[in-house]
Write a structure and sequence with these properties.
The complex is a heterodimer of chains A (about 130) and B (about 130). Chain A is of the alpha+beta class and about 130 residues long. Helix content of chain A is about 45%, strand content about 20%. Chain A has helices spanning about 5-10, 15-40, 40-50, 55-60, 70-80, and strands spanning about 85-95, 100-105, 120-130. Chain A has a three-stranded antiparallel sheet, with no helix packed on it. Chain B has two helices and six strands. Chain B has helices at about 5-25, 90-110; strands at about 30-35, 50, 60-70, 70-80, 115, 125. In chain B, strand 3 (about 60-70) and strand 4 form a beta hairpin. The termini of chain B are far apart. Classes of the chains: A alpha+beta (about 130), B alpha+beta (about 130). The interface of A and B includes residues 2, 12, 13 and 61 of A.
Amino acid sequence: MRSKVLQRILDKTPTDVEIFVDKYTDLVLRINQILREKGYSQKNLADKLDKRPSEIHKWLNGDHNFTLRSIAKLEAEFGEILLEVPSRKPTIEFSSYQSKMTYSFTVPINVIQKKEIIEDWKRATTEKGLSNVG
Amino acid sequence: MSLIRILNPIEELAVFITRKIGDEEGALEEFFRFENDAQTLPPTGRHRIGEITINYGNFPLRLFCLRLSDSLVVLFNGCEKTGKTAQGGRTSMAFSEANRFTKRILQAIQEKELYISEDGRTFRNFDDNKEIIL
């Protein structure tokens, strides 16, 4: 059973904190997974990135906040995607006398050509016309 | 200690423990830092006091725990980290308590006063009582 104090803290936790913890943990797990899979040691990763081993140690052991630049360096070295930004593209518009609707969908950038796994269509915006005019 | 200063890290830690460890990933070894002090090792040498900390730069809090498996972790007290080691600074009291509880829990398991439930997620007293007095 969860303690009442903990539940109160969770209830008051802002969404951005939840998102941060979620993404940061996933990122650290992903990096560790790739290191294991590819058999990197901290020393040879440091050599390949032309960094001091102590700096890589900080990256991987929590004494350093990842920056987009450090993530980019790791992605380039690993040849693997660590972070992915969804690209949202409006693709079709329906217009009528009274309303205009735009439908859009979001696809992960690395599978953009695979139409069959596109997510469900979602209504992005709706602008209602004035029905009582005239 | 200013409550406002540590409120955000407390929220982060709460989300990390309940969502990432509790609901999603389990108590993976890479989420923990383990103390290397030989004094803290129980006789079997298989379990050490761990610190739960979010793996990013200068996370200010330390929460001590006993990690028995991916699905069973005993949380103890924690504090703001002010010293270089767990034994120093403000965490010293919580660390010392964690050591005492750990020794007692492991001893109770060895002497069959406690057992781990079938699903591996809780302790039970030898008489199946949920209330455990060490």
